[in-house]
Structures are given as C-alpha cells and as structure tokens.
TrEMBL record:
Alphabetical list of InterPro entries matching this protein: Cro/C1-type_HTH (IPR001387), Lambda_DNA-bd_dom_sf (IPR010982)
Name by which UniProt lists this protein: Transcriptional regulator
UniProt KW Ubl conjugation keyword: no
Keyword ATP-binding recorded: no
Source organism (scientific name): Bacillus badius
Gene3D superfamilies xref list: lambda repressor-like DNA-binding domains
Length: 132
C-alpha cells in the first residue's frame, strides 16, 4: 500500500478491486463520471456527504480513503470489541475467525470456502509434521 498514499489512488484501487468502472461508480452514487475521474487524479476532493456515500457504496472505511489507516474494512462495535479481546488473548477458534473477520487477499475478499480451505491446509500440514 506504499503507493496508495492519496485519496485518489485509494479510491481508484478500491473501485478497480470491486470491478467497477468510473461510470458505474458515478451512476451508483449520483455523480458524473468526470467527478470520479477528478477524485482519482486528486484534482478535486469530495464533500463530506459524497465521501460517506462513496465509502458506503464501496463498503470501506472513510479512514482508509483519507489515508488514516491501511485497513479498508469498516468495523462494527462488536467487531472492534472482538479485536480488543483478541489483542488481549490472541487465541481464537477457527469458528470465531471465519465468523467475525474478513480477509482481503490480493485486493479481493476471501470467500468462506477459501478460508475453510486455508484452515484445512494448516491442519493437514500439522498432521503430516506429526508423522515425520
């Protein structure tokens, strides 16, 4: 995320990650395509209402767009509480992991099936090491 150091770069990155064109994003939030283009080139900044609409439409945090965090996920109060719990006790079950977290890999959210496969892979690797 080193090169995602401006609002415009982050907006473009997330828009493309979501598979949207500038026109599609603009239509979804009630703007002209040229406005999205100006935002992505850092020629103009959206007003607060537009910023909220963009974040809601793309399902990302405003703090990510404003470069205040590198985590694009918007967390609910329950998720924030869980993160605090995990930070105090870093051991969580696979069920808690898949239920309460979103994984972004290569700019795309991992599916439930992918997460379960990753957990299975780890378990298989552990079983194989025990046999050695």
């Amino acid at each position: 995320m080193d090169n995602l150091n401006t609002f415009g770069k982050r907006l473009k990155y997330i828009r493309k990650t979501k598979g949207l064109t500038q026109r599609e994003l603009a239509n979804a939030i009630g703007l002209d395509q040229s406005a999205i283009s100006h935002f992505e080139r850092d020629k103009k900044k959206p007003d607060m209402d537009t910023l909220k609409t963009i974040a809601d439409m793309l399902n990302i945090s405003i703090d990510f767009l404003l470069t205040r965090t590198n985590d694009p996920v918007t967390y609910s109060r329950n998720q924030t509480d869980l993160i605090k719990k995990v930070n105090n006790n870093p051991y969580i079950t696979a069920e808690e992991l898949t239920k309460n977290y979103r994984f972004i890999i290569d700019g795309r959210e991992a599916t439930q099936a992918e997460i379960e496969e990753a957990i299975k892979y780890i378990l298989i690797q552990r079983m194989m090491k025990k046999r050695e």
